[in-house]
Write a structure and sequence with these properties.
The protein is mostly helical and about 500 residues long. It contains 20 helices and 3 strands. Bound molecules: zinc ion. The site of zinc ion has 4 residues, from helix 10 and helix 11.
Length: about 500
């Protein structure tokens, strides 16, 4: 037990102290992971894995200790609202989940997914599904067993989905996706037609990396990202990680022929970073100081990237600075930049998909995962099922499994139930942006002149400062006055692409 815990401390004080102690381990692990993805030489990989396993093990043991369960039980039945009650509810949920899985199961899962990851990488390389299939069989089985350990009310997939998006149900998400599906297909087709005369290489040119970094940082700072309390570095797979109050790291990768991939990547990660920088510092290391969910996190990144950064008015304001930083753009017009930002074309790969087609990729994965878990779809039949559905959704025939069911890393990591959070993020982003536009007078005018402070302040007070005191669906309902509704996202896409 650390300093400050004596006999007079309440169970709640002890929980706060334990929670902050765990945060020391997890944030240190976070820094080591960030380093691994940015600066660590390849030779460090084995010892780094040991360091991370050690810190993860310590954090897990501290949280699952029997006294933590006793402290939580002591505090339950106290106040039913406020920060304290929210923390106790969140700890209860995490504690039950963390203690429901037998140690042998957790070890087996780690073993299976570490083998599956390398098998998947090889299978994707050679586009041979049969090399990954036996591993995926085991992963589906493990996920079913995990759902049984956790328990669920509706179907097993509920328990998996809730791992990533608390409070979400398969039926609820399925309903939202059914509303979206037919209209998304129509929007996708129309958007592609409208983009037919916008060449894919419209902005191709010479963009030195340092000049890109300079322009990216200027826009991130204008959005409100605080570089005294954060930084941007280079990586292969871009991400954002909030390490501590006052230390949020963004990463990006550069293509010197096309500035827009790092640029929109940075706008996306800036949205994540603004959320991390806006979490209440006084609650750091406790649930009230943590983000609400993956879906809510994604709503912040998509809002800044798509709703702010891809609107036509955006480039009216930023064109001058863009040309100054990136002289290649002198030969392009404001209209070229706006057209490229809203260009749409159906393709095989989710991570390359544009805003108008992205969600269909997610709905496809959700439907397939649900069927794999329920047993309706056998792993052996996955490629066929994927390809048939893909053709139905996008009108394209998948040419090889590496462009189809082998493209994503998620399943090889054992993560089923994760994908829906991306589209939940899009839906939340649209609903929040619409509400902000209603409540902030002259918001469009502000954004068109590069003034983002009122929008950020609105997001701070409605989302960031709340941490995870509310469940994601409650948070959205409180912020916008109504439950999550697909209509706002569809209206946004129609306004931009039809
Ligand atoms: Zn994201």
């Amino acid at each position: 037990m650390g300093q400050g815990a004596d006999m007079s401390d309440s169970a709640y004080d002890k929980l706060i102290e334990r929670s902050r102690e765990i945060a020391l381990f997890t944030s240190s692990a976070g820094l080591l992971s960030w380093d691994q993805e940015t600066f660590m030489p390849g030779g460090g990989v084995n010892y780094r894995a040991e360091q991370l396993a050690f810190l993860g093990g310590k954090a897990h043991a501290l949280f699952t200790a029997p006294e933590v369960g006793e402290w939580i039980a002591t505090e339950e039945g106290g106040a039913s609202d406020g920060v304290q009650a929210a923390n106790v509810r969140a700890w209860r949920w995490s504690y039950d989940r963390a203690t429901k899985l037998p140690v042998e199961f957790v070890q087996e899962r780690a073993r299976v997914s570490s083998l599956a990851k390398s098998a998947w990488a090889e299978a994707r390389e050679t586009s041979e599904f049969s090399r990954f299939a036996p591993h995926l069989e085991k992963i589906v089985d493990l996920n079913r067993r995990q759902a049984d350990y956790y328990g669920y009310e509706g179907e097993p997939y509920d328990a998996l989905l809730e791992t990533y998006e608390r409070g979400a149900t398969t039926a609820g998400v399925g309903g939202l996706f059914e509303d979206l599906k037919p209209q998304l297909r129509e929007i996708g087709r129309a958007a592609a037609e409208r983009s037919a005369n916008v060449p894919a290489d419209l902005l191709a040119g010479d963009y030195p990396q340092t000049a890109q970094a300079d322009f990216n940082s200027a826009v991130a700072a204008a959005f409100g990202f605080d570089f005294q309390r954060g930084r941007i570095d280079t990586t292969t797979h871009p991400f954002c990680t909030g390490l501590a109050p006052g230390d949020t790291r963004l990463t990006t990768r550069y293509d010197t022929r096309d500035f827009s991939s790092s640029f929109y990547g940075v706008l996306h990660e800036t949205g994540h970073g603004l959320y991390e920088q806006g979490l209440p510092e006084e609650h750091f290391g406790t649930p009230a100081g943590s983000s609400a969910s993956l879906g809510i996190h994604e709503s912040q990144s998509r809002l800044w990237e798509n709703h702010v950064g891809r609107q036509p008015a955006f480039w009216n304001h930023w064109y001058g600075k863009a040309v100054e930083s990136l002289p290649t753009l002198k030969s392009r017009s404001v209209e070229d930049l706006s057209a490229a930002a809203a260009r749409s074309q159906a393709g095989f790969i989710r991570v390359d998909a544009d805003e108008a087609t992205y969600d269909l990729h997610i709905i496809l994965r959700f439907e397939i995962e649900r069927e794999l878990i329920s047993g309706e779809l056998a792993v052996a039949d996955l490629p066929e099922a994927w390809n048939a559905r893909f053709e139905n959704f996008f009108g394209l025939q998948v040419d090889k499994d590496s462009n189809g069911c082998l493209q994503d890393i998620h399943w090889s990591m054992g993560a089923l139930g994760y994908f829906p959070t991306y589209t939940i993020g899009n839906l939340c982003a649209a609903q929040l942006f619409a509400k902000a536009g209603e409540e902030i007078s002259g918001m469009d005018q502000q954004l068109a002149t590069g003034n983002y402070s009122e929008l950020l302040a609105w997001l701070r007070s409605r989302i960031h400062e709340k941490g995870s005191q509310l469940l994601p669906n409650e948070l959205i309902e409180q912020a916008t006055g109504q439950p999550l509704d697909a209509r706002f996202h569809l209206e946004h896409l129609k306004a931009r692409y039809l």
